[in-house]
Design brief:
Elements (H helix, E strand, L loop, with lengths): L2 H9 L3 E6 L6 E5 L6 E6 L3 H8 L1 H10 L3 E5 L2 H10 L14 H14 L4 H12 L3 H7 L18 H16 L6 E5 L5 H10 L2 E6 L2 H13 L6 E5 L9 E7 L10 H11 E14 L8 H7 L8 H8 L5 E8 L2 H15 L1 H7 L2 H19 L3 E9 L10 H15 L7
Parallel strand pairs: 1-3, 5-6, 5-8, 6-7, 8-9
Antiparallel strand pairs: 1-2, 3-4, 9-11, 10-11
Helix pairs in contact: 2-3, 3-16, 4-16, 8-17, 11-13, 14-16
């Protein structure tokens, strides 16, 4: 039996995968199951099989990008779902892991790449976030929230779920009018503008993306709030001043484990004695690990999703109170599926912006990420810290009440200040 046959016979038990390859008859793996996709996969040449056996996820992504691995029945999301649904994280089988040699080399490379000093950080950010603004318009919500949405109902639209995410975060910060807030990794400015509009605070947003800050400043000027919501192109390590609240959404993934303590110490030093911080990040279930080669090479160079233990350990000794931890399990899977659907619907526009290879790269990234949250070992953590023992209420009721009030504002009901 060929190695690829052995690999697929282990990897696909439920659902069916039919494999077409040069000079061999078609072969089907698995059994029909209404809850699993039925996929036909074609290898364009004889070299495809060996690469996939050695390093399944990375090789599959590159071969799909290059048009050497073709999904003929179904689409790339179906293929990734079929494979990951047969290898759920909680089962502990790890059928899709690369060979031990590839893992060993990757571990060494990861230790080198994760040192995100300032110059490398800016270059890594530019690789992803300085892509065409048009690309992000095509698949994000109207507010350009490029992070996990919050689904109070799985059937909600992407735009509603992203606005509900802002309310969820804002309620945890317990912001009062006139407070000064720092948004680390502010993206295109949506959260900063939301916090000022809804809660009457002044916000400073910082980013390393030149494309993002240009749009964020334009949005603040268009709303006439540029004197209350400002944006700076600066590394978090260079920020000065004192802030009542700090929020960071979707930025910690780019910090790198060796810098975690530096990041949290800097946040503590920037907070007032009664200051509160909320850290929202993609995280890994279980213990520390490494970033897969495909993501590190093509999507987020220098990126790493932390284990919860790594976040908490970095805070030890800093004398900030970890006041709340929330684990969002499936919200990002729902978000990514909507991003994927919008990307597929915008194929012609994306190919015109870049090319077919870029489109395949982007859809493989979104499909893989969605299934990593649905079946794999990723989640989102929201970790709240406070410098004060008494600034926050001793129960979580204020979060729910504040969130409901903020959603009431969005739907037209009067808004009592949180």
């Amino acid at each position: 039996m060929a190695l690829i046959d052995l690999f697929l016979s282990r990897a696909v038990k439920r659902g069916r995968l039919t494999l077409l390859r040069p000079d061999k008859p078609a072969k089907t793996f698995g059994t029909a199951d209404p809850d699993f996709p039925d996929v036909t996969l074609r290898f364009a040449d004889r070299g495809v099989a060996g690469r996939i056996v050695r390093n399944p996820a990375t090789a599959a992504g590159e071969l799909y990008m290059d048009g050497r691995m073709i999904v003929e029945n179904g689409e790339i999301m179906d293929l990734v779902r079929l494979l990951t649904a047969n290898d759920k994280w909680e089962k502990g089988q790890n059928n899709l892991e690369p060979s031990w040699l590839v893992r060993s080399v990757g571990s060494v490379k990861h230790r080198v790449d994760r040192y995100n000093m300032e110059r490398r950080s800016k270059r890594n950010v530019a690789h992803h976030y300085d892509l065409s603004a048009r690309l992000y318009d095509l698949f994000l919500d109207a507010d350009r929230q490029y992070s996990c949405a919050y689904y109070t109902d799985p059937d909600h639209s992407l735009d509603q779920a992203q606005q509900d995410k802002l309310a969820h975060i804002a309620a945890k910060l317990l912001i009062r009018p006139g407070m000064r807030v720092l948004d680390i990794g502010c993206g295109w400015g949506g959260l900063a503008l939301y916090l000022h509009e809804k809660l009457g605070c002044d916000v400073v947003g910082v980013t390393l993306s030149e494309e993002q800050i240009k749009i964020a400043r334009e949005r603040a000027a268009a709303k006439g709030v540029a004197d209350h919501v400002t944006f700076e192109l600066i590394d978090y390590r260079r920020v000065e001043g004192q802030f009542d609240r700090i929020v960071s959404v979707g930025m910690f993934e780019h910090v790198g484990p060796p810098q975690y303590r530096t990041f949290l110490r800097k946040c503590r030093d920037l907070l007032t004695p009664d200051g509160v911080m909320l850290l929202h990040t993609i995280g890994r279930l279980g213990g520390p690990g490494i970033t897969d080669d495909y993501t590190a090479k093509y999507i987020f160079p220098g990126g790493y999703n932390p284990a919860l233990s790594e976040i908490i350990r970095a805070n030890e000794g800093l004398r900030m109170f970890p006041t709340d931890v929330e684990v969002l399990r499936l919200h990002y899977a729902l978000t990514l599926k909507q991003w994927y659907a919008r990307t597929v619907a915008s194929k012609a526009a994306i190919v015109a912006l870049y090319d077919e290879r870029f489109f395949r790269m982007w859809t493989f990234y979104l499909a893989g990420a969605a299934m990593a949250f649905e079946n794999g070992g990723l989640c989102n953590y929201q970790v709240q810290f406070s410098r004060s023992r008494t600034e926050l209420p001793i129960t979580r009721d204020y979060m729910f009440e504040g969130e409901q009030a903020l959603r009431g504002v969005r739907s037209g009901a009067p808004h009592p200040r949180v």
